[in-house]
């Protein structure tokens, strides 16, 4: 049995297969949430579980994975398919969670909720990455974080509260012991100069990076 503690949760948003995405999910276990199963085809993955109400799952996708165990839920439920899938991964020993297909797509409410949920999971001690392939989001709770980004790629820090003691190093626009009021745009559209180092004293934030967008060069 695969004992990996890294789980990739296949969600219904957009997902482009990139080298960084391949590297991130390599060796992980997979759980699909409803229509997110379509990404399993591109990734060449065989999820160990498929959860959801299956309201966004076409018949041909159901036929393509007849052997994957399904865990159906009614459409009128108290959590999203993605949250249910994450709970199943945690029950199976997840330590690192990759939410693939967490951003973009037709439902901005789902995309925003994924960011908030990712931050909650990080505060509980999980290592979390949200990705569309083109964009990557990593929670930044109080503490230190280093992201390996290509020089010239774009990134932003999104504050979900007032931020205090914010440091950004190895970027075009560094900050030192900065106070960012909630809703302020000062930390939008920075440019990496290689691996970027962050530190946060207090508050809740997410780093949203575009590793393949070198328009900041």
Automatic annotation (TrEMBL):
UniProt cross-references to CDD domains, sorted A to Z: TPK
EC number: 2.7.6.2
Keyword terms of this UniProt record: ATP-binding, Kinase, Nucleotide-binding, Transferase
Coiled-coil region(s): none
Annotated Thiamin pyrophosphokinase thiamin-binding domain residues: 143-206
GO MF term (any one): ATP binding
Enzyme class: transferase
Top-rank taxon: Bacteria
Single biological process term from Gene Ontology: thiamine diphosphate biosynthetic process
A Pfam family per the record: TPK_catalytic
Protein name from the UniProt record: Thiamine diphosphokinase
């Amino acid at each position: 049995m695969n004992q990996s503690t890294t789980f990739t949760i296949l969600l219904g948003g957009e997902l482009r297969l990139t080298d960084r995405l391949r590297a991130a999910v390599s060796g992980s276990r997979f759980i699909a949430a409803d229509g997110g199963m379509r990404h399993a085809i591109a990734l060449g993955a065989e999820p160990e579980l498929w959860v959801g109400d299956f309201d966004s799952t076409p018949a041909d996708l159901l036929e393509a994975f007849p052997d994957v165990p399904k865990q159906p839920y009614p459409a009128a439920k108290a959590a999203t398919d993605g949250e249910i899938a994450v709970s199943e991964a945690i029950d199976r020993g997840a330590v690192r969670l990759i939410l693939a297909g967490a951003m973009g797509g037709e439902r901005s409410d789902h995309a925003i909720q994924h960011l908030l949920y990712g931050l909650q999971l990080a505060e509980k001690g999980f290592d979390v990455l949200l990705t569309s392939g083109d964009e990557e989001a990593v929670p930044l709770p109080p503490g230190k974080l280093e992201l390996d980004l290509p020089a010239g790629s774009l990134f932003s820090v999104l504050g979900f509260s007032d931020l205090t003691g914010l440091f950004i190093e190895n970027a075009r626009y560094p900050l030192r012991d900065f106070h960012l009021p909630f809703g302020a745009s000062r930390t939008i559209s920075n440019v990496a100069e290689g691996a970027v180092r962050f530190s946060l004293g207090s508050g809740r934030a997410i780093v949203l990076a575009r590793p393949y967008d070198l328009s900041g060069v």
